[in-house]
Specification:
Low-confidence stretches: 1-13, 60-66, 124-130, 170-183, 554-566, 1430-1435
Mean pLDDT: 82
Number of strands: 65
Largest sheet: 7 strands, mixed
Structural class: alpha/beta
Length: 1435
């Protein structure tokens, strides 16, 4: 009877024991044997902090076998946290993989602990990491380098938090009580709901585009405003490729990076592009790659201040409040690596938490979580996330070109409708206004400015003559305020109030400045706070205008827990960050003009790289402030470029501007290739102003921005399209080009432009290849009369203007080039070769030694009459006395005559003391009578570094010069191949001779299919080339590679050669089959006494010279398999092991020949494989399994049976994945197979067998009434069905219906069978009653195919109906008739069905006959339907 008495209270000791009992084995530690010491050390440290017995580790009292697995599962069930000690061996361990999977399924908290030699995230380079990568994708790892590691404290703190949370969480507290979730229908429904709700939110985003601020009543959709903005993709460091479309973001490189950054200047359309990608996904645009992700997540980072996880961000900003998809569901979906996910982070430069360490965006970019997710991040070019590395993809927006700008203007004028005549005039007027003003054209390169101008500014004439971005913005802000005043026309009081607010906005200026220059850019303000600071009326005006925009965001502070209540509030931001910078500039002017500015730097926190427009607007608003700002800017790194932009924001004629210009042009002015067009235009404008005011311009450097000079010398066209006119006050001009070849006319044009610059005295042409001379009469008189210095620093030259030729100006450069060595390459242009020849000439004139001249595959021949070397380009290289060494690099073989031509050229170079031949094969000797005696007297060194040789000229023979090279070559092993040239084989034989002379051991000599025979008279091996290989005492191992089966005599010839190589201790036969035995009396006894090892196919089979037999080193498996994909060496090894097993009477359960049979050789009674090897009859094999594709002929089957006959113990043969003939004449079947009662089965399911007595196929199971072959069925299953059909047809059993589901490929040429995609053939079936063929979606069946199908059906005597589904059939003709057989065409699933009646298609339901026009219309409709439909969804 139960007692109701209260239990006695626990004593302190009992409470302590209870707590200890609850904490026991709460932490499961998973590790590999190699990391056992680390795991035990980790356990000790944890229990020192959390109490003894806290951890469970499998070294404690767990035995092997099933009991061990049960105890591990029980310990895992009890644990709250699983620590995975990840070593390099961890991911390869099957046990560890199972433990991780079990923990994941039990919903345990997983903490990966990395040892110091493991990289994170886990890569597939680790053996089993592919599965673990998914499980660990969202886990933060801990490092464990030593027991004193500081990271250990962090781990213990994390463990304590996890255990505390598990104790209060009912789900985590007892995970075993929760049913294990699988990918059920409910989970799929969650995903569908999630995608639907994402798309609904995204539609609200891309349907509310405002091209200009005050358009609030009529929002635009992104497709109405987006046009192809210019963009480039970085394909390597410093190299960018122009993209033709935003579709190419993921397709320019073969393997696109998983994380990509879209960067661009302010107003260049980064966010609009991002929304276009969202639009493509939502609308599933067929031509866009961005329709492919299963899930696309778009997050505006400006809104995510204080959000600590991507799941929180999605739950709060992308899902409705009443969504059935919860935070845990989102996390599970994100962590599913089977789902294709694209995350777009927009406006990183406005992300409030970008400076907070370890924010969730950084964790994703550093691949510490969600490692399978693709990421696109948009940001200003000046604010690339530090987490991005060299592997991060980079997309750079370059703004509107003329085509994109015209496209946008058309959209602004006429929308998406066709442009009417009046609209076309308006479009052309706007474009003409833009192009008429170069400054305005450059400003409108930014899509934001183009949009503003296209929608409103073109109506105001003040915009037509703008000279700066500031002036453009002043007019634009005025337009916005004018629009607001026009809306209250007649209310003078309100109009005056609006005018006052338009002029007085200092509080908003300060707010904008402080938000941009604070520690974190905070571009969102609470609505109520902003109203308190600026006033309700002011706030109302600026939101009505559209300068300020309201949006709902969360107000949870950074670090708040996910479970805390979330409240949304109305926050406010500027329409665009550029407008925020405009108002911030007003406050910067106030700070700079303040008397207190002398005590501090007012620009200290204003980063010019990120906030250049704050500076530019400030300089344009106030000339006095501009002077101070420009001086401050110039002190910053690369400040001159910003100073140029700031200077020309002012009125051009002010003295302050001229003072700034003087300061800027007193130093080198650079126009760089990577500068924006606007910056280049501004720089040119500044230079032209200096020239007009006769301000001295010291130097202009066109840094790879030069394109060309016009024929009249009046302008330089830069690559950006900006023009540079002659500058009268320019002193020095530098033109840098990237390895460009400049023609004579182009050089004259450059000189002509220099002559037009009235005071130019120095012209430097760098990085290019110039003509070696020009026509002196073409040089402009101004250049000659001014004695302009035209320098060519690549070679240290300057031009001698009177004659148009180069002379040495800087001897040090010439000396440096000659010291480094010169090269003439075959691939060099003629101009570059001419430049090198000129430099050789100058070096001779100045007596400067050239260390080395390399002729890299550029020699054609030596001209005896001129004593010149003729190059492949046709140029002549005379003997050069200043060259000390000649290096000849040639590919292939050099003949004796070619070598002597080189030596003849060396003779002409009087100071040359060495010639080296590289990368080629030389003759082994040269007759001494053909060698020039002067080379011997000059003691010229002729080296052959490939083999470490030097030629002894007086003998014409090679001798070893560098023993180390010979030793290295011999150590690596030498090879004689059948395909080697005779010259190359001679070189190898010479090297073998030298190794013997120097007593250098040759590790291995390989004879690769080059043996002809062994010559007993000379004791040499005769090669297939006819050369003789004598016995080489220095060779340690001989490797013989041959194809096919080697005879006994051939093996003995190799062993006879081994006998002659006295130090050889091993010979290996590769890719060939040796005889199973050789009589011992034929084997030389010395090989036995020398203990020579004879191996066959490395390490599997040996030949024992003592017994004369093959011996297997490894045991054969029960099932032996020879595949067509096996290497010849692997096949040979298996064959010899089978031969050994047969000789030793070792039974082999099964031999599988996997698509490797060629034919049966009657003369040798062996099966010839596709590799050329022969497999003799193997008596010990019990069963043969033949795997072949397609249909086997009668002869092929009989060849297999002939091989079975040779295997005397074989009792079964099985055919797999192929179709056998329905019968074979019994007289062709060997009677011994019948008496041995050989079983012949077909396909692994044994549904069909071949009866040798009757010579017929027999079905063991009843064929279903509804027979079908699907494309996804295994080939073996398809073959089984086909043979059952053949048996039924042969036995005249009716076949009700045969269905081909996507498996039909074509009709064979004879029309006798249908060919399936598996390669099998379905023959004609006389008893078939209905044939149903479903093709792949939308297949257009050709006339020949359709005729073949009808012929196939015509010869099936009992066929009553033929139906074709999911395809487009051709227009029928009178020959397409099957008599009484009904022909049905079902192009779509039962929606429209047609039958063939009297040679015409007729509707099955309405009996309407299709005319030719109706048929064409029907096919066109279905063709389009198939194109836009997703077959999987439709099915």
């Amino acid at each position: 009877m139960a007692s109701n008495a209260m239990p006695p209270p626990e004593t302190p000791k009992q409470r302590e024991e209870s707590v200890r009992s609850e904490m026991k084995n709460q932490i499961f530690i998973s590790f590999t044997f190699e990391a056992r010491d680390k795991a035990e050390c980790l356990k000790k440290k944890i229990e020192e902090s959390l109490g003894p017995g806290t951890c469970w580790i499998c070294t404690e009292g767990v035995g092997p076998g099933q009991g061990m697995r049960d105890e591990i599962a029980e310990a895992m069930d009890h644990a709250k946290v699983v620590i995975c000690v990840i070593s390099k061996e961890y991911t390869d361990s099957l046990e560890c993989q199972q433990e991780v999977k079990l923990a994941f399924e039990m919903k345990k908290t997983l903490i990966p602990v990395l040892l110091d030699d493991v990289q994170w995230p886990l890569r597939k380079s680790y053996g089993g990491a592919s599965g673990m990568t998914y499980i660990f994708a969202d886990k933060l790892y801990q490092k464990f380098c030593s027991e004193n590691s500081a990271d250990l404290d962090g781990l213990i703190k994390t463990l304590q938090e996890k255990l505390d949370r598990a104790a209060t969480d009912p789900v985590d507290a007892n995970p075993a009580a929760q049913p294990l979730k699988t990918k059920s229908d409910s989970e799929k429904e969650k995903m569908v709901t999630f995608i639907r709700e994402l798309k609904k939110t995204c539609r609200n985003l891309y349907h509310k585009i405002r091209p200009i601020p005050y358009i609030q009543d009529d929002d635009y959709s992104v497709e109405n405003v987006f046009t192809g903005v210019g963009m480039e993709k970085r394909v390597s460091r410093g190299s960018w490729k122009t993209l033709s479309s935003y579709h190419d973001i993921f397709s320019v490189v073969e393997d696109p990076p998983r994380i990509q950054v879209i960067e661009g200047d302010p107003g260049y359309g980064k966010s609009t592009l991002a929304l276009q990608l969202v639009y493509d996904w939502c609308k599933e645009e067929s031509d866009s790659p961005f329709r492919e992700p299963n899930i696309l997540i778009f997050l505006n980072l400006r809104q995510l201040g204080g959000i600590t996880s991507i799941e929180d961000a999605i739950e709060q900003f992308l899902l409705p409040r009443d969504s059935s998809v919860k935070r845990l569901d989102v996390k599970q979906l994100l962590n599913n690596s089977d789902i294709r996910i694209l995350v777009i982070f927009d406006a990183y430069d406005e992300y409030p938490d970008q400076h907070i360490k370890d924010n969730f965006v950084t964790q994703i970019l550093e691949e510490r979580m969600l490692c399978h997710v693709y990421v696109l991040l948009t940001t200003r070019s000046s604010c690339i996330p530090p987490a991005c590395n060299a592997g991060t993809g980079r997309i750079r927006l370059t703004g509107f070109d003329e085509g994109a700008r015209e496209q946008y203007v058309r959209k602004a004028v006429a929308g998406d409708s066709a442009v009417a005549e009046d609209d076309e005039k308006e479009v052309q007027r706007i474009l003409k206004q833009i192009n008429a003003n170069p400054i305005l054209r450059d400003i409108c390169q930014a899509p934001l400015f183009s949009a503003m101008y296209a929608h409103v500014a073109h109506k105001d004439e003040k915009f037509h003559n703008v000279r700066s971005v500031t002036e453009f913005f002043i007019h634009m802000i005025d337009c916005l305020h004018s629009h607001a005043q026009n809306k209250v026309f007649g209310d003078n009081k309100l109009r005056e109030q609006l005018k006052m607010f338009a002029d007085n906005h200092s509080e908003l200026d300060k707010l904008a400045f402080d938000s941009l220059t604070g520690a974190n850019q905070q571009l969102l303000w609470d609505r109520e706070d902003l109203i308190r600071k600026c006033g309700a009326e002011f706030y109302g005006l600026y939101t009505d205008i559209g300068i300020l925009v309201e949006e709902m965001v969360n107000n949870r502070s950074h670090g708040a827990k996910p479970t805390q209540a979330i409240q949304n509030q109305t926050n406010v931001h500027f329409y665009h960050k550029l407008i925020c910078e405009w108002f911030a500039a007003g406050h910067l002017v106030e700070k700079v003009n303040s008397p207190w500015s002398m005590l501090y730097n007012p620009c200290e926190n204003v980063n010019p790289y990120d906030l250049q427009f704050v500076y530019r607007f400030a300089c344009g608003l106030d000339p006095a402030a501009a002077k101070k700002i420009i001086k401050l800017v110039q002190k910053k790194p690369d400040g001159d470029k910003f100073a140029v932009l700031c200077a020309l924001e002012q009125e051009e004629n002010t003295e302050d501007v001229l003072s700034t210009v003087r300061d800027l042009v007193s130093r080198d002015v650079h126009i760089c290739e990577n500068d924006t067009r606007l910056l280049q235009r501004t720089t040119v404008q500044l230079l032209e102003l200096a020239s007009q005011k006769e301000v001295r311009i010291e130097c202009l450097d066109l840094d790879h921005s030069f394109e060309t000079v016009d024929e009249k010398f009046t302008r330089i066209a830069l690559k950006s399209g900006v023009d540079l006119r002659p500058l009268q006050s320019l002193q020095s001009l530098i033109v840098q080009m990237k390895a460009t070849e400049v023609t004579e006319q182009e050089l004259i044009n450059i000189l002509g432009f220099a002559g037009q610059c009235g005071k130019l005295m120095k012209l430097r042409l760098d990085g290019c290849i110039l003509p070696v001379a020009i026509n002196a009469e073409s040089i402009p008189d101004q250049v000659i009369s001014r004695k302009m210095k035209v320098s060519y620093p690549r070679y240290g030259y300057k031009m001698k203007l009177g004659v148009g030729q180069w002379e040495v100006d800087d001897v040090a450069i010439v000396r440096k080039l000659c010291s480094d060595g010169l090269t003439l390459r075959r691939d060099d242009s003629v101009l570059l070769q001419q430049s090198t020849l000129l430099l050789l000439k100058k070096s001779t004139q100045l007596n400067i030694p050239v260390t080395c001249l390399t002729l890299d595959q550029s020699i054609d021949k030596f001209d005896v009459t001129t004593s010149n070397m003729i190059l492949t380009s046709g140029l002549s290289l005379p003997g050069v006395s200043s060259v000390m060494k000649l290096k000849v690099t040639e590919s292939g073989n050099m003949s004796e005559d070619q070598c002597l031509q080189v030596l003849a050229f060396v003779k002409e170079c009087r100071d040359m003391n060495e010639v080296s031949f590289d990368s080629c094969v030389l003759p082994v000797s040269i007759p001494t009578e053909r060698i020039e005696p002067s080379l011997i007297t000059r003691n010229v060194k002729v080296s052959y570094p490939r083999y470490g040789y030097e030629m002894k000229l007086e003998e014409g023979q090679w001798e070893v010069d560098d023993v180390a090279i010979v030793r290295k070559l011999c150590s690596d092993g030498l090879t004689l191949r059948r395909d080697d040239s005779v010259l190359l084989q001679q070189s190898t034989l010479l090297l073998l001779e030298k190794s013997t002379q120097l007593n250098i051991p040759v590790t291995c000599l390989t004879l690769d299919q080059c043996i002809d025979k062994f010559d007993v008279t000379t004791s040499s091996m005769v090669l297939t080339s006819g050369l003789s290989l004598p016995g080489v005492s220095s060779v340690m191992t001989l490797n013989v590679t041959e194809s096919g089966n080697m005879s006994e005599d051939r093996c003995l010839q190799v062993l006879a050669f081994v006998k002659e190589c006295r130090d050889m201790n091993e010979v290996s036969f590769n890719s060939c089959v040796l005889p199973v035995s050789i009589p011992t009396e034929r084997i030389d006894y010395s090989l036995t006494t020398r203990n020579v090892k004879v191996s066959c196919c490395p390490d599997k089979v040996l030949f024992n010279p003592q017994s004369g037999k093959l011996e297997s080193k490894t045991k054969l498996p029960d099932d032996v398999r020879i595949r067509s994909s096996d290497t010849v060496a692997e096949q040979a090894s298996t064959i010899m092991q089978l031969m050994v097993a047969s000789a030793d009477k070792i039974p082999v359960t099964c031999l599988m020949l996997d698509q490797c049979i060629d034919k049966f050789d009657v003369t040798t009674s062996s099966m010839v494989l596709t590799s050329g090897l022969s497999l003799p009859g193997v008596s010990s094999v019990m069963k043969l399994k033949v795997i072949e594709s397609g249909n086997m002929s009668e002869d092929q089957c009989l060849q297999v049976l002939a091989f079975v006959k040779e295997c005397r113990d074989m009792n079964e043969v099985s055919f797999d994945s192929c179709v056998l003939p329905v019968s074979i004449p019994t007289k062709r079947i060997d009677h011994s197979l019948i008496t041995r009662n050989i079983k012949v089965s077909c396909c692994p399911d044994n549904k069909v067998e071949f009866n040798l007595r009757s010579g017929k196929l027999e079905s063991k199971t009843k064929l279903p009434a509804n027979a079908r072959i699907r494309s996804r069925y295994p080939v073996a299953e398809q073959a089984s069905t086909i043979m059952q059909l053949m048996v039924a047809s042969a036995d005249k059993n009716p076949i009700t219906i045969m269905r081909l589901y996507g498996s039909f490929s074509s009709v064979d040429s004879d029309g006798l069978s249908l060919v399936l995609y598996s390669g099998l053939c379905l023959p004609r079936l006389s008893s078939l009653q209905k044939l149903w063929i479903q093709t792949e979606d939308g297949r257009e069946v050709t006339v020949d195919e359709w005729t073949g199908i009808l012929n196939f059906a015509k010869h099936s005597q009992l066929l009553k109906e033929l139906e074709m589904a999911w395809c487009l059939l051709p227009w029928p003709d009178s020959n397409m008739n099957l008599g009484n057989t009904k022909v049905v065409w079902n192009p779509e699933c039962h929606a429209s069905v047609y039958i063939l009646q009297s040679g015409r298609w007729q509707g099955l339901h309405d009996s309407r006959v299709l005319t030719r026009e109706a048929y064409t219309s029907l096919v066109t409709t279905f063709r389009e339907w198939y194109r836009v439909s997703d077959w999987q969804k439709q099915r």
